[in-house]
Amino acid sequence: MSITPTEQHFFADIAQILQTGRSQSYRAVNTAMLQTYWRLGQRIVKEEQHGLARAEYGQSILPKLSRYLGTQFGQGFSVSNLRNFRQFYLTFPNFDEFVTHCVANLSWTHVRLIMRLDNDAERNYYLQEASSQNWSSRLLERHIKSGYYRRVLAHQSPLAEKLPASSAAPFIKDPYVLEFLGLPESFSGKESLLEQSLINHLQKFLLELGKGFSFVARQMRISTETSHFYVDLVFYNYLLKCFVVIDLKTGKLRHQDIGQLDMYVRMFDDLKRGVDDNPTLGIILCADKDETLVHYSVLSESQQLFASKYQTLLPTEAELAAMLEQEAAKCIRNAENNATEGDA
Q1: Between 202-209 and 191-200, two packed helices, what is the crossing angle to 10 degrees?
Q2: For residue range 174-217, what is the model confidence (pLDDT) as tens digits?
Q3: Strand partners, 215
Q4: Closest CA to 264 of 212, 305, 325, 318
Q5: Could you give the residue range(s) of every CATH 3.40.1350.10 domain in the chain?
Q6: Residues with Cβ < 8 Å from 78, sequence gap 6 or more?
Q7: In whole angstroms, what is the distance from residue 27 CA to residue 9 CA?
Q8: Do residues 36 and 69 touch, judged by C-beta distance below 8 A?
Q9: What CATH topology corresponds to 154-343?
Q10: CA 275/CA 173 separation, integer angstroms
Q11: What is the pTM of this model?
Q12: What digits encode the pLDDT tens for the residues 271-290?
């Protein structure tokens, strides 16, 4: 059966109306469900507070309520779920304020993961990012386990509010967690293996890089009159409006690696950067780095060059805390040194 262009346009309009209606219906139903769970939590808390012995009363009333609701409505009202409803209300006591952070594309699974976080700023970050970036609940769980928010925050200087709006600081993480590659902890000297694995898992790598990144090329050639050079990975960030070149090192960062990246970024700015693009950013993704070397290199002052470690296993909570503490201390030292130099 042939379809004329006019019919095709008509059919597309009908499909769009249906899609919009279904999306609106889902958002309305999802918001209503979340509000219902919030109201259940609110009612449970108020009932517990009226008990003469709150702790004992709470322990006894929830199993009874669970059995009652199970008889009335079927599955979904276990004691653990009732506790989740209670925690939902206690974590977000103002539902209208909660909705301003959490638009309706976040499911109850998303909310359960986020409300277990202790820090208000971290919770709000994940609510906004998971919503605006349309993260699946599985991706959200992965980002929480890998300390995504804290890794971004730790890399920023305490003086970050003084940085220009185009600064890359909020877009750079240290370390990058690449557990999805399935690679061993150490494979020094095999940059090609790391590069190929990143390409094979490009979608996951883009999600780990963060907002605004799109893939451009691997082994991109940049040439002068006498020489050819090949950049491992090239991306473009449409939020920063600039190219981002990544140099892969499976060993410890060396001073010649920094010089090489600096050259790549300068060449890229001269040969590839568009008239409307911001200056190119360069990231050395390395297995390890010496902070003393970083401090006494151009990395400590440049707004275009960065060095970040990667790791191929999800960190434990203790490992993550230690890494973030080290990174935060480094940022504070750099900020203090820069402030001292500025005063001088």
Answers
A1: 90
A2: 889 999 998 887 777 789 999 999 999 999 999 999 889 999 99
A3: 235
A4: 305
A5: 154-343
A6: 66
A7: 27
A8: no
A9: Trna Endonuclease; Chain: A, domain 1 (3.40.1350)
A10: 28
A11: 0.75
A12: 889 899 999 999 999 998 88
